[in-house]
TrEMBL record:
<protein>
    <recommendedName>
        <fullName>SRPBCC family protein</fullName>
    </recommendedName>
</protein>
<dbReference type="InterPro" id="IPR023393">
    <property type="entry name" value="START-like_dom_sf"/>
</dbReference>
<dbReference type="InterPro" id="IPR019587">
    <property type="entry name" value="Polyketide_cyclase/dehydratase"/>
</dbReference>
<dbReference type="Pfam" id="PF10604">
    <property type="entry name" value="Polyketide_cyc2"/>
</dbReference>
Length: 163
């Protein structure tokens, strides 16, 4: 299963990618995050593997995230014409996914965030989940992006909202 979602954020690209890359901010916008801890490497750097635990309603997911691309490595003084890339792979029971994110300047104070997502499922249960609820994955990706946008632009913290 593959899909792409995108969103504009009313902040300069350099500020957006710095906020996104800072692990201290993850709980503020990544709804359902229980744990995100590096096992090897430094958070956000290429080659780093992390244990990730997410809780969505009654469902709990645990997987291993590996950062496969971050360009440029230094998120300060990024040339205007450059595209910033963040890519990661997540492996969990019955599921493999890759996310390829690109950040470009949509204007002097606006960033375009494009997220390409791909999922592969193994095992009967996960294949059924992927087959029966493909829209749920896209919806969750859009929710994470919307939550990040609200955090970045307005300082909203998902832990303070009632769902």
């Amino acid at each position: 299963m593959k899909y792409t979602v995108s969103m504009e954020i009313a902040l300069p690209r350099e500020r957006v990618v710095q906020l996104l890359a800072d692990p201290a901010h993850l709980p503020k916008w990544l709804r359902g995050l229980v744990l995100h801890e590096p096992l090897t490497g430094v958070h956000g750097q290429v080659g780093t593997t992390s244990r990730v635990v997410m809780q969505m309603g009654q469902q709990k997911f645990e997987g291993t995230e590996t950062i496969t691309r971050r360009e440029p490595a230094d998120l300060h003084g990024i040339p205007k014409e450059s595209v910033v890339h963040f890519e990661r792979e997540i492996v969990g029971e019955g599921m493999w996914s890759v996310t390829r994110e690109r950040f470009t300047e949509a204007g002097p104070e606006t960033t375009l965030w494009v997220s390409e997502n791909e999922y592969r499922f193994s095992g009967l249960l996960m294949r059924l989940v992927g087959l029966l609820t493909p829209g749920a994955f896209r919806k969750q990706s859009q929710q994470h992006m919307q939550d990040f946008k609200a955090f970045a632009e307005q300082g909203k913290d998902v832990r303070e909202t009632k769902d």
